[in-house]
Amino acid sequence: PVTVYPDQYLASKEVAQRIAELIKKKNEEGKKAILGLATGTTPIYVYKELVRMHKEDGLSFKNVVTFNLDEYYPMNPAAVQSYVTFMNENLFSKVDIDKNNIHIPDGSLPLDDIEEYCRGYEQKINEYGGIDLQILGIGRTGHIGFNEPGSAPNSGTRLVTLNDLTRRDAARDFGGKSNVPMKAITMGIGTIFKAREIILMAWSKHKASIIKKSVEEEVSADVPATFLQLCDNVEFFLDEDAASELT
Ligand code: F6R
Q: Does 148 participate in catalysis according to the annotation?
């Protein structure tokens, strides 16, 4: 299902509310909430709202385990552009999550170690019983995570090459496209599909055309987000601009 909100702030509040409800429900059951998280500009207000709920409403993250979708490669976790830094600044340093429960792909590993590391990342998700709720943004190439065009629907966590458009879109954060890493470690489409619930968010006009393709066009690896049409546990949260090309 696709739900269109007047603006990204209202939509983000609703997504944060869903996350909070999941955390509380799992708490009551004495279980951990396993969240799959995204970075980038799209989820920023979701994280702001979660931080607010932590500070004002007493929402605790003590029983929350997180797996982030991706990280640039190579990337020093301490660098300002790393997704580790992003998550710390936007969420983790502002709530009471146990640092041991945070998982973000490590962009600083030697190339030779990555395959085994990715298998381990996948295995860790499985050991926790899988992801309860996966949050996604979408790139203008149709990528989810960093699963660029050509990604297989059953792909797992792996090292990928970033699309040129993706690197162009990231150029501002890096002070020029040439500084954007060529590669990334990302959960696969298959990894994302195993989540029990998936929420994809998109805001603004510059996502309108890829949202139209993802929702209305044929399922194809040319637009990886179209694979989400095959899941019955996916919800699209859009603002009016991102939904503006839907028929
Ligand atoms: C980030 C991620 C990417 C972004 C996408 C949109 O962890 O997995 O798929 O969600 O590139 O980025 P923004 O939100 O910056 O438009």
A: yes
Q: What is the pLDDT of residue 148?
A: 98
Q: Which of 148, 197, 216, 217 is catalytic?
A: 148
Confidence of residue 96 (pLDDT cuts 50, 70, 90): very high
**Other residues' Cβ atoms within 10 Å of the Cβ of residue 113:** 11
Pocket of ligand 1 (CB under 6 A): 38-42, 69-70, 137-139, 143-146
Q: What percent of the chain has pLDDT over 90?
A: 100
Domain membership flag for residue 218: yes
Please indicate, yes or no, if residue 235 is contained in any of the structural domains.
yes
Instruction: Give the Cα separation of 73 and 33 in Å (integer).
Output: 28
Count how many domains the chain has.
Answer: 1
Which domain does 171 fall in, by range? Answer: 2-239
Instruction: Please state whether the predicted TM-score (pTM) of the whole model is above 0.95.
Output: yes
- Residue 139 CA to ligand 1 centre (angstroms): 6
User: What is the rounded distance in angstroms from the CA atom of residue 229 to the CA atom of residue 238?
Assistant: 16
The CATH number given to whatever domain includes residue 64 is: 3.40.50.1360
Cα distance between residue 139 and residue 145, in whole Å: 8
Residue 244 domain flag: no
Say how far apart CA 189 and CA 209 lie, in whole Å. 21
Average pLDDT, the chain: 98
pLDDT for residue 189: 98
pLDDT tier, 218 (very low <50, low <70, confident <90, very high otherwise): very high
CA of 144 to the centre of ligand 1 (A): 7
Fill in the DSSP letter of residue 129.
Answer: T
Q: Is residue 246 part of a domain?
A: no
